[in-house]
Amino acid sequence: MLQDVDMSRVTLIDHPLVQHKLAIMRSIETGTKQFRELVRELALFEGYEATRDFPLEDVAVTTPICDTVCKQLSGRKVAIIPILRAGLGMVDGLLELVPSARVGHLGMYRDEVTHEPHEYYAKVPADIDHRICLVVDPMLATGGSSIDAIKYLRAQGVQDIRLLVLVAAPEGIKAVLNSDAQVRVFTCAIDEGLNEAAYIVPGLGDAGDRIFGTK
Ligand code: PRP
Ligand code: URA
After folding, report:
1. Ligand 2 binding pocket includes 207 (Cβ within 6 Å)
2. pLDDT at residue 7, rounded to an integer
3. Exactly one of 30, 32, 92, 206 is catalytic; which is it?
4. What gap in Å lies between CA 54 and CA 51, rounded to an integer?
5. Which of 1, 65, 92, 117 has the fewest beta carbons under 10 Å from its own?
6. 110 annotated active-site
7. Is the CB of 139 inside a 6 Å radius of any atom of ligand 2?
8. Is the pTM of this model over 0.85?
9. Is 206 a catalytic residue?
10. Which residues line ligand 1 (CB under 6 A)?
11. What stretch of H or E contains 108?
12. Left if phi > 0, otherwise alpha if psi is -120 to 50, otherwise beta: which for 47?
């Protein structure tokens, strides 16, 4: 499935703490409160990897001992773009890492029969085309929702788009990479595939329902 795609654009975060937390999240025994906490924590770990190449510049600092030169972030600003609903669960973890980031919202839901995404809301920062966009959604299944989100941002002139998901199906990774020549994908797991209802197997069920306790 993934043999003929450019996996250099995919980062699998296989840190032991990430894998441990993901195992707890997947369990049917894990309740809403703990699930929500784990989504936030994993987003923070993932954000750490997704921002690894952010450029630095020199800054003069006076310590209690002497003057010195340190590093600070330079370059373009950041926008966090959650795909509603489930992407909202990842926002706070990323804001802890990048407190100055702006947040834009893209509302998408999958039709339960066709599995096609439908956009119902979009509100992003006015200067979005000058920002690095971290698109966040815990689940990358068929890829339809993420592809539409990426297309929307490209149409707004965004250059640097990074898709941060927690669990991905190979089908979704392939579809996203084939739909956009530049986007980079960060994920904590690449699962076996999709079932007949287009849910990720083994996955973790419906991420939105588990975050918000709606089932
Ligand atoms: C889920 C999930 C993704 C999408 C993934 O959202 O949070 O947005 O499905 O599936 P895809 O890759 O096949 O598009 P859902 O549509 O269930 O909406 P919700 O977050 O409001 O529950
Ligand atoms: N959306 C989810 O929340 N889970 C899946 O497995 C697929 C789509």
Report:
1. yes
2. 96
3. 206
4. 5
5. 65
6. yes
7. yes
8. yes
9. yes
10. 83-86, 108-110, 115, 117, 137-146, 172, 198, 206-208
11. strand 105-110
12. alpha
Active site residue 68: no
Q: What are the residue boundaries of the structural domains of the chain, listed by start?
A: 7-212
First to last CA, the chain: 33
Angstrom CA distances, 5 to 82, 128, 161, 171, 183, stand at: 25, 28, 18, 11, 13
Q: How confident is the model at residue 194 (pLDDT cuts 50, 70, 90)?
A: very high
User: How far apart, in whole angstroms, are the C-alpha atoms of residue 42 and residue 187?
Assistant: 10
Q: Categorize the per-residue pLDDT at 89 as very low, low, confident or very high, splitting at 50, 70 and 90.
A: very high
Q: Which ligand is nearest to the CA of 141?
A: 1
Distance CA(68)–CA(26), nearest Å, equals 47
Smallest CA-to-CA distance from 101 within 109, 117, 90 is with 90
Sign of the alpha-carbon torsion through 77, 128, 101, 159: negative
Q: Name the active-site residue from 68, 114, 129, 214.
A: 114
CA distance 2 to 77: 32
- Considering every ligand atom shown, identify the ligand nearest to the alpha carbon of residue 204 and give its number: 2
CA of 110 to the centre of ligand 1 (A): 6
pLDDT (tens digit per residue) in 142-181? 999 999 999 999 999 999 999 999 999 999 999 999 999 9
Answer whether 136's CB lies under 8 Å from 90's CB. Answer: yes
Asked if CATH classification 3.50.30.30 holds for the domain at 7-212, the reply, yes or no, is no
Ligand 1: residue whose CA is nearest its atom 20 = 85
